[in-house]
What does this fold into?
Amino acid sequence: MDLLSRESFGNSLVRKMASHIVGYPRMGPKRELKFALESFWDGKSSADDLKRVSADLRSSIWKQMADAGIKYIPSNTFSYYDQVLDTTAMLGAVPSRYNWTGGEIGFDTYFSMARGNASVPAMEMTKWFDTNYHFIVPELGPDVNFSYASHKAVDEYKEAKALGVNTVPVLVGPVSYLLLSKPAKGVEKSFPLLSLLDKILPIYKEVISELKAAGASWIQFDEPTLVLDLEAHQLEAFTKAYAELESTLSGLDVLVESYFADVPAGAFKTLTALKGVTAFGFDLVRGTQTLDLIKGSFPSGKYLFVGVVDGRNIWANDLAASLNLLQSLEDLVGKDKLVVSTSCSLLHTAVDLINEPKLDDEIKSWLAFAAQKVVEVNALAKALSGAKDEAFFSANASAQASRKSSPRVTNETVQKASAALQGSDHRRATNVSARLDAQQKKLNLPVLPTTTIGSFPQTVELRRVKFVNTRPRRSLRRSTLKPSRRKSRRLLTFRKSSTLMSWFMESLRGTIWLSTLGTTLRFCLSC
It folds into this structure.
């Protein structure tokens, strides 16, 4: 069976298997959201135009998962900018500098918080754990007047339901939201952000009540901070929060999702004892030690959402290995309580391998983007139910073997050179002070040398060459470098220019370029 064929595979299912996707890329296979946002920001299109493009993307994503046979399909994972910012909007936690006067938060306020405007700066952006994704950091303090100011979660659930897809609404959990926040300007750095829990929980209750009224049967809370090294009072906040929400959650199946790392033993104990929670999701790709905790003390009668399909890379899953792991958990939780899932949101990988027509079949067989990972999840769920697709698994096993043995991945010359390295090879021949003296004599740098941290200017000519030719002209690179050298004797770094990076990457073996409609993604095959 063709590893890329997902629609026929999904439509062949008689019923939905126990499968779940934590989240999905939101930009679109052809970067539809990017272009719609830029057009709106430039004043070339209206808010209605942006909403229309976004609705089409959401509809296609939900349909894709439904066609693939996914049982627990997420909603409210789409965002115009960032899911944490969406939560800030939901809670009405808008910093005063944006002059928001109340009511439903619109695009003007939302994008001002995200990007700033002519008169005020944007909110701080920082990395989402150890990924390359960045989120907008909430600015909180004792004087924030929280209010239910964005109905996005409920609206998107209703939107999916109207299309015939009953989704699992996803919310950033209340405790993780506060732990990922920072004290607002003028607020003491020592301000206990968790003291705001009592102020935000009433809004979470409103959202939950509206979702229940709309017909939701499941709800997912993302609490990724559970993988951090939390203190006792921080863990206690989880216990307090879900105890407070328990009565409102009554009648719903509640999934608390963690990802990106192992859940420490103390946090695991706290998590699995939360009141009102019926299901727990774990990343068993990066959280390998969590498996021992699950086998040792997973509570009976609860659902276990097992994240075995990696949401953070572009490689095809080793289906046989994943199936063995899943089968080892069947007796522990029961077949009816075991759900196959992704390790985290698929936001962190590329969208669809079908858009890479230039890749040869061997390379394609090694890869799985978000669309293919959805198929992998359901293939595993189907196998667990006793309806294993032997052809699909056989093709996957062949691809796994091919990747392990291919000379395109394993370079014997590199392997031998690496094996021959000795301890002395990892040390420089001269000490730091000698190297500094030599560098200064050679470069004559100023006391505070400066380096560029961004890209070189992308001239019209350079852009033309970049798209017409696979390799940029050496003369164009020189024309960019020479003026920089002439201006001052500064330490020069060229770091982000995709044209320069492409020239270096194309000179390396074991590297492929994935270029979908102008979007360039770089993944190394071997080292």
Q: What stands out?
A: The chain has two domains: 7-405, 412-508. Residues 412-508 form one domain.
